[in-house]
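User: For a benchmark we're assembling, each entry needs the component sequences followed by a predicted structure for the full assembly. Here are entry 17's components. Please fill in the structure.
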Amino acid sequence: MTALHGAEINEAVSRVVNEGWYLQGKENERFETDYSKYIGTKYTIGCANGLDALIWIFRAYIEMGVMQPGDEVIVPANTFIATILAITENGLKPVLVEPRLNTLEIDEDKIEEVITPKTKAIAIVHLYGRNAYTEKIGALCKKYNLKLVEDNAQAHGCKHYDGRRTGSIGDAAGHSFYPGKNLGALGDGGAVTTNDPELAAAIRALANYGSQKKYVFKYAGRNSRLDEIQAAVLDVKLKYLDEDNAHRKEVAHYYYEHINNPLVTLPDLLPDDQNVYHLFPIFVGKGKRDALHDYLEQNGVGTVIHYPIPPHKQECYKEMNHISLPVTEQIAKEELSLPIGPAITMEEAATVVDFLNQYK
Ligand SMILES: *Cc1c(COP(=O)(O)O)cnc(C)c1O
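Assistant: Structure for entry 17:
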């Protein structure tokens, strides 16, 4: 991965090493300023990883008295487990809502029926790089006075059709800079973006032992900081994010135009910049997903399932194991993610399609 923009990344790392200042310095300041400008929020608060970013948002709302343990948070059932972990870690209750099969994002028509007096927030996840926000979700948040929290871990650079970037639409957003994400560090990293100064101050403190002033502790926080080397690397990679995403889009459009295997269904093609193609999910019918995965692997094409076991069927959430969520479970049975990324060549994409279309 360092091969892309490698020289500039090496230079950034060397600069930090030569200066010998590794935490809470000007690299974080610069990246936070640049990322806020890019996403379109007043504040970015760097933290240790994407899971922590989401944990801090809910924890800060609890500290601010906006929520309390036992309250409910509406969340898509089809997501990476971290979204749900951030809710349960804070003693909040995840209320799972099915996605739509054609968009893969939370079904806006199934939200209102699960809102109760205990509901305090809707968490949307821009999963696979697809914009999950809809006007209806925004209207529900207004109507019921709910916080809108975005999980933007897979969607750096994605936009709503009105031009706002995901990560700037809700009250707060969690971002992950895990190396494989569209904006990836050389290790773990994360951030919260928000326009709320009180929330920003609480999160900044929580991620630094709970301290706003040296040796004075307002909250029982943790050490969850973004280090200077990662911030410096991210600031370099941020400059190339749109270019990298444009390449992903080119590959994705090639897939959309050329995949014609009748066993395979593709999710709706989103217009403009509403998809940054973190992943390229396809659906394989007739129970042949695993066989197709193996066939592609034998032909040198690596594919991954996102995700084979949905959160409500995981051992860690025994209390949810009985719930039936047919759309989410169908996605888990049929989804396969084709290779996509800033480094894949169009020739490689063509090879993927050739093997895929030959499969019976
Ligand atoms: C990667 C990811 C996270 C967690 O980010 P980490 O940096 O790995 O902790 C959260 N939510 C989603 C949807 C993710 O894909």
